[in-house]
Protein 1
Amino acid sequence: MPEIRVALAGVGNCASALVQGVQFYKSHPDEDIGLAHPQLGGYRVSDIKFVAAFDVNKRKVGKDLGQAIFESPNNTIKLYDQLELGVKVKRGPTLDGLGKYPRQVIEESAEGPTDIVNELRESGAQVLINYVPVGSAQAAKAYAQAALEAGVGFINAMPVFIASDQTWAKEFERRQIPIAGDDIMSQIGATVVHKTLVKLMSDRGARVDETYQLNVGGDMDFMNMLEEERLRDKRESKTSAVRAMTNYPVPTRIGPSDYIPFLENEKVAYIWAKGRYFAGAPVTIELKLSVIDSPDSGGVMVDVIRGIKVALDRKIGGPLLSVSAYSFKHPPEQMPYKEAEERMLAFFDGKLPR
Ligand SMILES: NC(=O)c1ccc[n+]([C@@H]2O[C@H](COP(=O)([O-])OP(=O)(O)OC[C@H]3O[C@@H](n4cnc5c(N)ncnc54)[C@H](O)[C@@H]3O)[C@@H](O)[C@H]2O)c1
């Protein structure tokens, strides 16, 4: 049986949805609904195995990963009551991981931090996913550095720029370790819908004059993003993804807009675009999208994990350009989503080097 051994930095809602989703496809081997690519590079989602996990929350550290994913304040959907994975969550270095609002509801573990590099080596991890909160630049870079030192492929799910940063990218290339990022673009999320809408208007001859996207949600991600200073890269990441769809500048405002606790892990996005088409006649499009945020990212993450594994199999290091363009908001190279998918599939077929 092929196996892809994955470590998680941050056992929040995204990790929970990913772990539960992988378990779901393991126990329903004939189920393909929800998967854009049931098979990639000879791997199935059920080949993913979680071998290590790191967090700083007292309620999660020391617990089995299968239990830690259900600990408060995680509040994404629950598919299982009992899940025993045989992997203990280890204490990561906190650094700047806890923002001022999450600190009010999360009690930090009193344990000293684990040696991440050692834990990655001992667990036999092949891929490390960075799921720490927005604004945690030091923590994100500490995990990227640990991946480099342990020789483990790195996936940066959040908006601190690592895969899209030249210095980091070169270092991953020099050490022949694959990396994909930055800031995962969800399966049917606000970014891909907004990108597609702006591209549609542009492809069909309309001039897009102004556009915005407002997002609200009720989980820790949204509570953390109340702190505007932690948000700079998130805004830049989401905005650059939409801006890349036109070859002229469009006044654009995109970002998280508020924290509404009772929405829990439901995210509501309001997307608005105004433009002109035939003979300058005006057009306005308003769209409301409502999703469960964390499984939305899981549906794409399972493709990225397989991309990193295939790169490891082929001894390819550095940023995976096609996989990143398809799966992330702020990749090293932006592409319309269809072109990115074609290139990613060519990579999996061995027709493109990265
Ligand atoms: N659809 C999506 O949900 C989506 C899309 C794109 C990007 N992201 C990003 O992915 C990241 C994870 O999202 P989430 O919803 O799981 O967030 P979350 O707040 O639920 O989880 C973050 C976890 O990281 C832990 N943590 C904090 N500092 C840490 C450290 N130094 N080391 C290890 N763990 C630490 C927290 O205790 C928490 O368990 C966020 O940055 C989010 O913006 C999510």
Protein 2
Amino acid sequence: MSSQFAISVRDLEKDYGDVQALRSLSLDVGAGQFFGLLGPNGAGKTTFINVLVGLVNRTGGEARVFGADVTDDYRQVRDRIGIAPQEFNVDRFFPTKEVLMHKAGYHGVDRAEAADRADEVLRTVGIYEKRNTKFTYLSGGMKRRFVLARALVSEPDLLILDEPTAGVDVELRRDLWRIITELNDEGTTVLLTTHYIEEAEQLCDEVAIMAEGRKIAVASPAELTQRGTDTLRILLDETPSGVPDIDESGLENGSIEDIAVEGREVVVTAKRANAVAPELVRRLDRAGYQATNLDIEPASLEEVFVDLTSHDADDADEGEDESGETDADAQRLESPEATT
Ligand SMILES: Nc1ncnc2c1ncn2[C@@H]1O[C@H](COP(=O)(O)OP(=O)(O)OP(=O)(O)O)[C@@H](O)[C@H]1O
Ligand SMILES: [Mg+2]
């Protein structure tokens, strides 16, 4: 199978008892991409990641990382992935550098090289001066930095970050963004989950939106945003006596959803407003209205996200929300090496 994909899954299923955490999920992430996985709580993002890294066994379907099957070629797959999990799973009572050296050792790196690498990644994430400090004595933000260092020490081709910036301050968030972006620029494939939509918008070249175990959409943030509704405000030279009577049909590359009047402004909600604006101004002109100014408030990815995920919730067949357990349970399934 081709390995131009860092991740390739087909009809992936994961059931936890009667909870269907992944439902016929098919997804490809190209090598070198910065790929975002978005979805509300319980959408199945962490489950998907856990299947990739072998912490959770899939119920059905195919899952490959750089062409290797995540179960059959578990070792090979694990060697190419660095993961910063959603919940910390670190040996708390060992100095950070030692944990990193141990992790590198697990990936077959000899001790001298492991020491060099540990120093290097500690510098990359900015906690080199804490190299002899036990994980448990790091601050919350430093713990986040450390978990990234641990993901990097094996020099992975695929870096998986499960909500790396949840609850961190602005400075650390920007720092993490910079570090991850640099790694991606150097060729590391990144899979990122986040609840900060603007983070996905800024960082990712493609995002998948998931809800209730299903994939709802995959596209670049810009393409997804275009599915949303923009607001176009056209200022007229005088207050119209009512909503201008213009033909709303036949607009290429866009569509009008509503036209209203607020004082001297005609307020139009439209898909791809910038594509319809010139023709709209012409039609207003023909109807006897002079436009003097034009302003477009573009749709936001956040609105599109809410729209897409709430539609899915409406369409969902059976409610499975009663199960209160989420990540805590997933963490129980960690394999021993994940804690090194
Ligand atoms: N170990 C487990 N045992 C039973 N059910 C689980 C387990 N792990 C996850 N689930 C269930 O699977 C579904 C998906 O959970 P998952 O943790 O993958 O979601 P998520 O998208 O990562 O959510 P969040 O944004 O809250 O991290 C949820 O309904 C959850 O309760
Ligand atoms: Mg999760």
